[in-house]
């Protein structure tokens, strides 16, 4: 499948019909420069360069080994597609939230990242100016709404408005991490449903379509009155785990009852592994208390799976319980590394064998630690953009 190549070490671009591999390599290396951990994996070219460094005498790091891709060579597949004049009408722009990810996506698609000027005035107001024509083009705006959430969200609104007023044919908002997705219901009286408000604002700003990755709750997709393509980061993590020799006796653990569906789907794809559930009682925002474990983890390797890690209170409490119940080792896997304080202290405390995340959110150096592995989801997002632009099936990527 095409998505499973998202974290593979193929040594060639995922979707690069026009651009050379050297250009993609330089872009990926620039994106990876913010990571100091040798386990950080930002695309196939990053893996290839790491392997070449080892052959030149660098230190060996078995956890960053290249594995065999499960998809055919992308060049051969793309060469069979008919060339259309509208291919030149695809424009990709990036906000300031995660520009390295956008650069890698553009490199895999074989296009240049659109030229855009984004700056702040002295009073904090945001100014955006497109520095190339988008008239009649399919525009894709890449901007995760991570911290600072309100700044990045407002920046995205202004980018949408700039494209709409510049006569873009269509505007697709690519949000690798959708902020405010957890505010998806009224748990108490007189509370807002902020996820619905954010969806309304994106629509009113002028976006025609939204691409999101692993949104916190799928019912939030219904808040949009425009088409939404929901993609999953699981294939990236599954490919990485398949490349490692962990153990044949695996158990996938959901850190709370709300993530059971996600954990069950992950366990089914991971050699049909066993499933366990951690029962917890939440006492307040960003506060949780582990109460009980449903399932057997004694003598097994436990893989905790969640959509995001914020303060890491839930997942570290669950890991501590798994250790008490006799788990041999505990791995943490998530798509979005929010990592609000004190997440780094909790995750690097030694309870986890490895913490595996994607680069949907750009992590600065002070949020990296030795147990962290960052996998690139650029190929997965690039494949989705390609299918949307060519009116193809997005769901076929995950089949």
From TrEMBL:
Biological process according to GO: 5-phosphoribose 1-diphosphate biosynthetic process; purine nucleotide biosynthetic process; ribonucleoside monophosphate biosynthetic process
Entry's Gene Ontology molecular function annotations: ATP binding; kinase activity; magnesium ion binding; ribose phosphate diphosphokinase activity
Pfam families (alphabetical): Pribosyl_synth, Pribosyltran_N
Keyword DNA damage applies: no
Catalytic activity annotation: D-ribose 5-phosphate + ATP = 5-phospho-alpha-D-ribose 1-diphosphate + AMP + H(+)
Stretch list, region Disordered: 1-63
Top enzyme class: transferase
GO CC entries: cytoplasm; ribose phosphate diphosphokinase complex
InterPro entries: PRib_PP_synth_CS, Pribosyltran_N, PRTase-like, PRTase_dom, Rib-P_diPkinase, Rib-P_diPkinase_bac
Biased composition (Low complexity): 1-40
Superkingdom of source: Eukaryota
Keywords from the named record: ATP-binding, Kinase, Magnesium, Metal-binding, Nucleotide biosynthesis, Nucleotide-binding, Transferase
Family: Belongs to the ribose-phosphate pyrophosphokinase family.
Name of protein: ribose-phosphate diphosphokinase
